[in-house]
Amino acid sequence: MASAAVSPNATRALTLSTGAFTVCFAVWTIFSIIGLQIRETLSLTETQFGLLVGMPILTGSLVRVILGVWTDRLGGRLVFTLTMLAAAVATFLLSYAQTYGQFLIAALGVGIAGGSFAVGVAYVSRFYPADRQGTALGIFGVGNVGSALTKFAAPFLMLALGWQGAAQAYAAVLALTAVAFWLLSDDDPVIAARGKTPERSFAAEFAPLADIRVLRFSLYYFFVFGAFVALALWLPRYLIGVYGFEVAVAGMVGAAYSIPGSIFRAWGGALSDRYGARAVLYWTFAVSTLATLILALPFGMPPAGFIAVVFVLGLFMAIGKAAVFKHIPVYYPENVGAVGGMVGMIGGLGGFVLPLVFGWLRDVTGLWSSCFAALFVIAALCLIWMHLAVRRMTGAPTGQPA
Question: Which CATH topology does 10-187 take?
């Protein structure tokens, strides 16, 4: 069957949304850089610093459900713009914080930028036919590369302007992005057809979240996104602790791990459209289970071999991210915001929780490889649960995964 044509409005919506999400993701991770200077200024403990850096990740994940619901009801053009403006205001006010409590409150506001993912998924999916949504959402997800942009750009801004000036510069860019998005974008086809008045009650928006498949998709995303983010954060420490890498070299390896992992998400979307998300996820979880098993074995793997296996793991995680979100508009076309928000929230929480788990396991077992043992359990559980669900499946949409 021939693919439905994609309108110029769809291409513009995808381009604008991907650009806006990249900026949002850069803002969302700003504490990974400016937090270093704040830690020195306030003489923070490691625990206090960890909470400060993790707060935007936590809050940005928690707001995804409500932002997704509002997107379903009011449209992504409005909600995306307001989300960016709110985060821009919080980021600007951050530059005036002086006490640790004030920094935590500011981080809470900055975290709103991370909720933009759920908004963009719901907005972009409405412009594309079902056989193009995997590719479109995969391209949108490339905005994850914003975290790498922050790692490269924020240090220079901080050296030139101080951490306060860097925060204000980020706030200005985000505010200008919000204005440009509003002026250049269009309402999605659903909002354009029905107007701004929602057709369903607010409570009805949450009804699909009781479906067990949403929990299963959330577990998938907890691994492919949450574990990916956790590894990006943990990898420099691992390389220093196990192989004695210099900080700069370990940081470069971590950045090199993050960038391809974001870009290959677009390829994962295209593969999901062509071969089906189920096939892509089978490969993702099978390879991830094998890779984490190899990495979890407590023997001395050479640094080059370790990095090679980790990069293979990161590649399949990136491909799997797009495959997970290929499911959502297929099964929940009227609730992409709510379901996508829930799945995105659980994935984001993985990025917050798993580094804490990795540290705890290292303390308890004394083994650096224990973090990969935890990831092996999660990957194996995803593979087993998906396979059992596929075997039980009856009446699934033709050509689509369970």
Answer: Growth Hormone; Chain: A; (1.20.1250)
- What tens digit of pLDDT does each residue of 141-198 get? 888 888 778 877 888 888 888 889 999 999 999 999 999 999 999 888 888 777 666 6
Q: What are phi and psi of 100, to 5 degrees?
A: -60, -40
Fold classification of 208-394 is Growth Hormone; Chain: A; (1.20.1250)
> Which amino acid would we find at residue 303?
P
Tokens of 248: 């700069």
pLDDT digits (tens, 9 = 90+) for 329-384: 888 877 777 888 888 889 888 988 888 888 888 888 989 999 999 999 999 999 99
Q: What is the dihedral of CA 304, 305, 310, 311, to 10 degrees?
A: 60
Rounded distance, CA 225 to CA 346, Å?
9
d(CA 75, CA 79) in angstroms, rounded, equals 6
Task: Check if the beta carbon of residue 64 is closer than 8 Å to that of residue 58.
Answer: no
- Would you list the domain boundaries of the chain? 10-187, 208-394
First-to-last alpha carbon distance for the chain, in angstroms, is 22
**Amino acid of residue 4:** A
Is-contact 372 288, C-beta < 8 A? no
Q: Name the band, by pLDDT with cuts 50, 70 and 90, for residue 68.
A: confident
- Whether the CB-CB separation of 279 and 329 falls below 8 Å is answered with no
pLDDT digits (tens, 9 = 90+) for 297-315: 987 789 999 999 999 999 9
- Tell me whether the CATH fold assigned to 10-187 matches the one assigned to 208-394: yes
Q: What is the Cα gyration radius of the chain? A: 20
* Maximum CA extent, the chain: 63
Angle, to 10 degrees, between the axis of helix 8-28 and the axis of helix 46-62? Answer: 160
Angle at 393 between CA 389 and CA 396, to 5 degrees: 120
Distance CA 36, CA 51 (A): 13
